[in-house]
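Retro notes, structure queue

What went well: the backlog is down to a handful. What didn't: a couple of records were mislabeled last round, so from now on we paste the full input next to the output in the thread. Example, using TrpR YerC/YecD from Fusicatenibacter saccharivorans:
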Amino acid sequence: MNKKLHSEAVDQLFEAILCLKNKEECYTFFEDVCTINELLSLSQRFEVAKMLREKRTYLEISEKTGASTATISRVNRSLSYGNDGYEMVFERMEKKENV
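Corresponding output:
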């Protein structure tokens, strides 16, 4: 975990996110907190991670998501050497789908 990221402000942001109850509340909150481009960038990275996990090629991912190879590479590095945050979320989403 990145210690540089830890701060009272970030803690408060995460507490706010944890208060959200459903997808509609997420839209409402994130549309206020983020610019449209920031939100689209986050969702693009998430889609890239999903496709990398499915063993798709950089070309396939770039064509489908519009992500640059630099973005795909950055996400791939996070999947390989990060804190396993993507993996944690993907596993939870899969469990939820199988219920």
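Agreed that this is the format going forward. Reviewer comment attached to the example: The chain has a mean pLDDT of 95.
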